[in-house]
Amino acid sequence: MWLVRMKDLTANFHVLGVVVDVMRESGVTEIQVSSLWRNSVNSPHKQGMAIDITAATRNGVTVRLNNDTAGTQSEEAMRIRDDIYNAFVNDERVSQALDPWRLESRGETSYSLENKWQNVYNTYLLPRGISLSEYNDATSQQQLRWVENDSQRKNMLLHRNHLHVSIVKAK
Fold first, then answer.
1. Which residue of 77, 108, 120, 167 has the smallest Cβ count within 10 Å?
2. CATH architecture of 6-114+160-167
3. Burial of 163 by CB count in 10 Å (0-12 exposed, 13-18 middle, 19+ buried)?
4. Closest to 116 measured CA to CA, from 150, 79, 82
C-alpha cells in the first residue's frame, strides 16, 4: 500500500498536462506508460516530475521506444518516434528527454548526445561479465561504478528501452 499525498498528485497532473500537449502536437493518440511516480532515490520520478513511455501510436502505427529488444521498426514508426521526441525536446517545460536513440538534457547538466548504449555495454559491462539484467537490478551507485562514474553512460544504458521525460516544476 502506498501513501499518496496531494503534492504528489499535483505534480503528476503537471506531467500529464505536458504529455497531453505533446500528444496533440505530434498527432499521437495512444501511449504506453511504464512509470510515473515511484519511490526512487535521486530521480524526478520520486517528486512526480517524470514519466517513462514505452510505446506511442498514431494512425494505427505503433513505435516501440525500445532499441534493445524491439528489433527494426518501420520508417513510419520512426517518424512517430521523431515527432514525439522532438515535441518533448522543444517544450520549455521539459528538462530531459532520454530514449534509446538520443539523450537531451538541459539545466545544471546540459548535453545532447546520440545514445550509444551498445558501445557502453560492450566496453564497460561485457568485459566484466555483467548482464544487462544484472545492471538493471544493481544500485545506482554500483551502476555508476561499472561505467567509471559517468552519468551519461549510465543514462545511455538505463534508457535503452523507453523514453524518459523529466518535467520542470510548475511555478
1. 108
2. 2-Layer Sandwich (3.30)
3. buried
4. 150
Q: What is 102-142 written as a DSSP string?
A: EEEE-SSS-EEEE--HHHHIIIIIGGGT--HHHHHHS-HHH
Tens-digit pLDDT profile for residues 45-55? 777 788 999 99
For residue 170, give the nearest of 12, 4, 6, 37 by alpha carbon: 12
Determine the 3-state secondary structure of 144 from DSSP. Answer: helix
DSSP letter for each residue of 43-54? -TTTTT-EEEEE
The grid coordinates listed for 52 are: 517513462
Mind listing the pLDDT tens digit for each residue in 5-58?
555 556 678 888 999 999 999 999 999 998 877 767 677 777 778 899 999 999
